[in-house]
Amino acid sequence: MSKKAGHQARKRFGQNFLHDPGVIERIIRAIHPKPDDAIVEIGPGLGAITEEILAVNPKLQVVELDRDLIPVLRTKFFNYPDFRIHEGDALTFDFSQLTDGKPLRIIGNLPYNISTPLIFHLLSQTGVVQDMHFMLQKEVVQRMAAVPGDNNYGRLGIMTQYFCKVQPLFEVGPGAFRPAPKVDSAIVRLVPHTELPHPAKDLGTLQAVVRTAFNARRKTLRKALAGVVTVEQLLALGINDGLRPENLSLADYVSIADLITAEKESGQGSAQADESRAKDVSGDTHD
Ligand code: SAM
């Protein structure tokens, strides 16, 4: 536990506060905030990044879950009357209410304990987002940027790349934080595509196919997607059924999902496939 400004860092909120001025400056340079940007910070904590952004953009808005930090932030930044603090949970927060007509620039040194569900929630809101800059565990950034064939290629990378261009920027060691986390960190920039490069006819079906495939990532597609598509259907799409889920591109997954959607629309889906998919959509949170 580390104590700063009278606040005890809380593990359950994923609190590792940045204190290295060099790292903070590098993050600010990467974000490149401008006075008129609509910037939203997730998890301002004790305000290490907040302070530097406010100096350029006094209309900054923040979303913080730990209610004990709210008075600390109010006191520290009392001289910024347009600074807005939203006490709430970023996992369920409706970011569209913050836009005021302008696309948002979302930033944050995110709580690592909830980073994957938080990224999925943010991906569902990319319609109101200009760009996002996040500090995450290094492995999470690697998974987001992974390409077919990489060991860490999976659901997180495919769905992030469905919505965004992913740019890993630089790594940050544990010593930049108090308390120091046990893992390395990295900064990533996510820029939502203005037009999706591989739009799926039905997003839910794409998510279900990707989840089912990677629940059996070591198996061949024939087995991993059994009950979802037949070997003949895979071959008709030009996909070798002997490959593994990690070998398929986003475009391949979209083509499988679209085939299933088309089948569903024409009422041709097999009862077995429907049952398997229903199980999957309601299923786990594996990534
Ligand atoms: N930005 C600060 C910094 O860089 O020093 C703090 C970063 S700390 C890694 C993560 C922050 O996110 C903490 O302030 C924590 O209280 C906050 N947080 C944790 N879970 C949250 C949630 N679900 N919604 C909003 N904020 C959350």
Automatic annotation (TrEMBL):
<protein>
    <recommendedName>
        <fullName>Ribosomal RNA small subunit methyltransferase A</fullName>
        <ecNumber>2.1.1.182</ecNumber>
    </recommendedName>
</protein>
<keyword id="KW-0949">S-adenosyl-L-methionine</keyword>
<feature type="domain" description="Ribosomal RNA adenine methylase transferase N-terminal">
    <location>
        <begin position="23"/>
        <end position="194"/>
    </location>
</feature>
<dbReference type="InterPro" id="IPR023165">
    <property type="entry name" value="rRNA_Ade_diMease-like_C"/>
</dbReference>
<comment type="function">
    <text>Specifically dimethylates two adjacent adenosines (A1518 and A1519) in the loop of a conserved hairpin near the 3'-end of 16S rRNA in the 30S particle. May play a critical role in biogenesis of 30S subunits.</text>
</comment>
<dbReference type="Pfam" id="PF00398">
    <property type="entry name" value="RrnaAD"/>
</dbReference>
<dbReference type="InterPro" id="IPR020596">
    <property type="entry name" value="rRNA_Ade_Mease_Trfase_CS"/>
</dbReference>
<dbReference type="GO" id="GO:0052908">
    <property type="term" value="F:16S rRNA (adenine(1518)-N(6)/adenine(1519)-N(6))-dimethyltransferase activity"/>
</dbReference>
<feature type="compositionally biased region" description="Basic and acidic residues">
    <location>
        <begin position="274"/>
        <end position="287"/>
    </location>
</feature>
<keyword id="KW-0694">RNA-binding</keyword>
<keyword id="KW-0489">Methyltransferase</keyword>
<dbReference type="InterPro" id="IPR020598">
    <property type="entry name" value="rRNA_Ade_methylase_Trfase_N"/>
</dbReference>
<dbReference type="InterPro" id="IPR029063">
    <property type="entry name" value="SAM-dependent_MTases_sf"/>
</dbReference>
<feature type="binding site">
    <location>
        <position position="109"/>
    </location>
    <ligand>
        <name>S-adenosyl-L-methionine</name>
    </ligand>
</feature>
<comment type="similarity">
    <text>Belongs to the class I-like SAM-binding methyltransferase superfamily. rRNA adenine N(6)-methyltransferase family. RsmA subfamily.</text>
</comment>
<dbReference type="InterPro" id="IPR001737">
    <property type="entry name" value="KsgA/Erm"/>
</dbReference>
<keyword id="KW-0808">Transferase</keyword>
<feature type="binding site">
    <location>
        <position position="18"/>
    </location>
    <ligand>
        <name>S-adenosyl-L-methionine</name>
    </ligand>
</feature>
<dbReference type="InterPro" id="IPR011530">
    <property type="entry name" value="rRNA_adenine_dimethylase"/>
</dbReference>
<feature type="binding site">
    <location>
        <position position="89"/>
    </location>
    <ligand>
        <name>S-adenosyl-L-methionine</name>
    </ligand>
</feature>
<keyword id="KW-0698">rRNA processing</keyword>
<feature type="binding site">
    <location>
        <position position="64"/>
    </location>
    <ligand>
        <name>S-adenosyl-L-methionine</name>
    </ligand>
</feature>
<keyword id="KW-0963">Cytoplasm</keyword>
<feature type="binding site">
    <location>
        <position position="16"/>
    </location>
    <ligand>
        <name>S-adenosyl-L-methionine</name>
    </ligand>
</feature>
<feature type="region of interest" description="Disordered">
    <location>
        <begin position="264"/>
        <end position="287"/>
    </location>
</feature>
<feature type="binding site">
    <location>
        <position position="43"/>
    </location>
    <ligand>
        <name>S-adenosyl-L-methionine</name>
    </ligand>
</feature>
